[in-house]
């Protein structure tokens, strides 16, 4: 990427039009030239935290090929800036762009712990694993300030309710005390996303995430403390990180992970245009190759929304990727199994303490 024109610390390099809006905002060249001559900033590139007040916090996941039934998100938008993130499209429902807005307009749900507790106390609620970060990372930078994730973990512990976490941030270790307490009753599972062993690749794919070294160290520390970890090799992007499947699996296993999972990248909705703009600026020498190989995994398109094939792809390249992951499991995780979470305790703790009578 041209460092003179790149927007520092961001994945997306533009705001694509919101498909729900008739009008769009454009940064014109004459305005940029005016700013240059006047010595002014055309874009301050600041992150804004915006409070929102949803009525519920736990969502039922209807998709049959996502390994979760319920999810919750303390934040909407994600400062990590992963260029491929499928969740970017959801920002359009809030009136923002899936591009830079997704990384710089973060909606904060401060009432999430209270809403979660209300749900878990309902007599009609039956324990089922709730996944934190089904959409955006619950340990993104905003969590340092607001600590909503920590408060929610405290609620899960209070009511002995199973919870799973998806993250790519070492900040999770801040809450090691709560995670260990949950692990004593088999109430916690962590999914650490690691997409590459190359820091160069990480920096351009996921600019504000924890380093690969820190993520692997986090897997090791969690595992040593009895907290089961699954490593997400997701997404696999042909010609960018597809050659790293076996080394990634080996590193994950050596650091204590119990299993691995993967998806093949799909550029749904507005993400196709965001990704294409990014890759022509970042990897112009292989942009066409990467895009064509992604298309070969999805029937000639950058996206495939069909259940059953959208996550695994089809065609020769997808078949090769899926076979490599299968081989990695046999080679490095042959005798390892991610334990199922405990669903049996919650009913006894509906009132926040063990029922005595």
If you had to describe this structure to a student in words, what would you say it looks like?
The chain is α/β, with parallel strands linked by helices and 357 residues long. The protein has a single domain, classed as TIM Barrel (Alpha-Beta Barrel), CATH 3.20.20. It contains twelve helices and ten strands. It has helices at 29-38, 100-104, 112-120, 142-146, 148-158, 176-183, 199-205, 212-224, 245-254, 271-282, 287-296, 316-332, and strands at residues 48-51, 58-60, 70-72, 75-76, 105-108, 130-132, 163-167, 188-193, 229-236, 259-264. The strands form two sheets. Strands 2-3-6-7-8-9-10 form a seven-stranded mixed sheet. A three-stranded mixed sheet has the order 1-5-4. The N and C termini lie far apart (65 Å).
Describe the structure in brief.
The chain contains twelve helices and ten strands. The protein has helices spanning 29-38, 100-104, 112-120, 142-146, 148-158, 176-183, 199-205, 212-224, 245-254, 271-282, 287-296, 316-332, and strands at residues 48-51, 58-60, 70-72, 75-76, 105-108, 130-132, 163-167, 188-193, 229-236, 259-264.
**How far apart lie the N and C ends?**
65 Å
Number of self-contained structural domains: 1
Strand-residue fraction? 5-15%
Radius of gyration over alpha carbons?
21 Å
Q: How do the strands of the widest beta sheet line up side by side?
A: 2-3-6-7-8-9-10
Mean pLDDT: 91
* Overall shape: globular
Total strands: 10
Derived from helix and strand composition plus strand pairing, the structural class reads: alpha/beta
Give the CATH topology: TIM Barrel
CATH architecture: Alpha-Beta Barrel
Overall helicity: 25-40%
Under CATH at level 1, the class stands as Alpha Beta
Tally of contiguous helical segments: 12
Name given to the CATH homologous superfamily: Aldolase class I
Helix-strand topology string: HEEEEHEHEHHEHEHHEHEHHH
Low-confidence stretches: none
| Largest sheet properties | 7 strands, mixed
